[in-house]
Amino acid sequence: MFNDRSSLLAHLATRRSGKARDMVAPGPDARALHEIIALALRTPDHGKLAPWRIVTVAAEQREALATLLKRSWVKENPGAAGLDLSALDQFAHQAPTLLVLLSTPVPGSKIPVWEQQMSAGAVGMNLLHAAHAHGFVGSWLTGWAAYSAEVAAAFGAGDGDTIVGYFFLGTASRDLDERPRPDYDDVVRSWEI
Ligand SMILES: Cc1cc2nc3c(=O)[nH]c(=O)nc-3n(C[C@H](O)[C@H](O)[C@H](O)COP(=O)(O)O)c2cc1C
Q1: What pLDDT does 82 receive?
Q2: Which residues line ligand 1 (CB under 6 A)?
Q3: Ligand 1 atom nearest to 164, measured from its CA
Q4: Residue 129: which of 52, 54, 39, 38 has the closest Cα?
Q5: Among 171, 155, 10, 32, which residue's Cα sits nearest to residue 95?
């Protein structure tokens, strides 16, 4: 994709998340999605444990996702109705493409769980970069749907596994403005010893 260094640098300098609810078709087709995921899996991984999993959610499975979210939410919040449930419907149906990324640390490994979880986060960042490089916009969302044990289990999470995030991909319906970034000097300093 990048035929010179400046285009790679431009990619890194311009990638932005889009709002999932504003994403429109097309999303990546099957081949592009496969490439995006394959690129994302090229991620630093101490011990070569591959402590992450990606679950693809097909367009025709969005209604099942909405049902799952609403059922689990009502179980946790008896009597919930109305706006709560329509927000979950909206969440499940937004954007053309949806991936769920899980952190699946290998139990008993000598590699600390924290390192395995960081590697899963790095897969997430790589997903956003790879989607952008393919001309799509991405959004990494968590919220309640990522922290519900019942929802996580439905995506195959076992003990110690967590949902890193929902990755919505699609086409931006409008230009994305840059957002404020931290001041370099606020977050970077020379080591003083
Ligand atoms: C782990 C994680 C979870 C996030 N969850 C949410 C979320 O639930 N809702 C939300 O509006 N933004 C969430 N964000 C923020 C957006 O994904 C994104 O960082 C923000 O919109 C700007 O991103 P950009 O710097 O890529 O443009 C999350 C970010 C991370 C890293």
Answers
A1: 84
A2: 16-17, 139-143, 165, 179
A3: 1
A4: 39
A5: 171
